[in-house]
Amino acid sequence: MGFMGNVFKFLGFEGDSKPSKSAKTTKTKATYKLKNTNMRPDQIDGIPVYYPEKKEQIKEFLNFVMQNRAVIISLEYCPNEDNAKSIEFIRGFCFGANAKFIPLNDERQLYLVLPEGMEVEG
User: Fold this and answer.
1) Of 54, 58, 89, which is closest to residue 72 (Cα–Cα)?
2) What Cα–Cα distance (Å) separates residue 32 from each residue in 21, 24, 38, 47?
3) Domain residues of the chain, as ranges?
């Protein structure tokens, strides 16, 4: 690089040199979250979704199953120490009511409860 190359470099122009690796990586990094945690759907495929914040609220939501209505229960807002107890309560309810208990995601926070006689298509 000659004198003019140094002048261009000083002014911020690179000339023939390759871009640095750090410039490439900054272009591909995202600075925002893809998951919007404020979004709480009221329904998924026509089935109401409930978000209990305490394990005591689950009993209220399971009353809908007793009325032959399917429900989805999301435990993402329930404290972690209540999750295991909540899941065991739902399983016990499903056993007693001949309902189906189906985990819907890998994080084990979203559950479908189907009343007796209802089936899942798909």
Assistant:
1) 58
2) 22, 18, 14, 31
3) 43-114
Question: Could you report the per-residue pLDDT of 2-45, keeping only the tens digit for each?
Answer: 666 666 666 666 655 555 554 443 333 333 333 444 567 788 88
- pTM for the model stands at 0.63
| Residue type, position 120, single letter | V
Tokens of 112: 């479908």
CATH class of the domain at 43-114: alpha beta
The token pair at 45 is 């495929």
More confident residue, 107 or 15: 107
Containing H/E element for 71? strand 71-74
Contact status, residue 97 vs residue 65, Cβ threshold 8 Å:
yes
